[in-house]
Amino acid sequence: VFIHLSLSSLTLFPNFSNVTLRCRAPSNNIIVVEWSRADLGKECVLMYRDELFVPDDQHPSFKNRVDLQDRQMKDGDVSLILKNVMISDTGTYECRVFRKTNRRKRAHLKTPPITSRSFLVLLLLLLGVNLELIL
Fold first, then answer.
1. Domain Ig-like: where (predicted)?
2. Into how many domains does the chain fold?
């Protein structure tokens, strides 16, 4: 799944600190979840393997700032919580899920990127803004 996060509107909402990047996968036998951003090279945003975080290849700017929304990954929820969001977090994020199977197989999920308008509406909803007054 590719998700584009545009944070230029953060200057309008300085109290906004966390964002959830949603990703869902088939819920059975998930052994690895990897969140990455193309511009980070080989370093990742988050690697979760066998119920443990793997910090070895994590980009330093994400240390202690990311978590899975549900570490048990119930119903295939592998959404990422990004804490203390900064303008430098802008980018296209990729969620990759690897499942335990009898044969080698790679699951790669793709969805269209979130548009700036969708992100702004989501941001306003998270902030509790009454959209009826705006729309």
1. 17-97
2. 1
d(CA 96, CA 72): 16
Distance CA 10, CA 85 (A): 9
Domain residues for the domain of 52 are 2-134
Q: What is the pLDDT along the chain (135 residues), one digit of tens a residue?
A: 445 554 444 443 455 588 899 998 887 788 999 999 989 999 999 999 988 999 999 999 999 999 999 998 888 999 999 998 888 888 888 999 988 874 454 656 565 665 556 666 666 666 666 656 555
CATH number for the domain spanning 51: value is 2.60.40.10
If DSSP codes are grouped into helix, strand and coil, which group holds residue 133? Answer: helix
Sequence-separated (6 or more) residues with CB below 8 Å from residue 47: 32, 33, 34, 35, 53, 54, 55, 56, 57, 58
- Residues 6+ away with beta carbon under 8 Å from 18: 81, 82, 83, 84, 85
Neighbours of 96 (CB within 10 A): 19
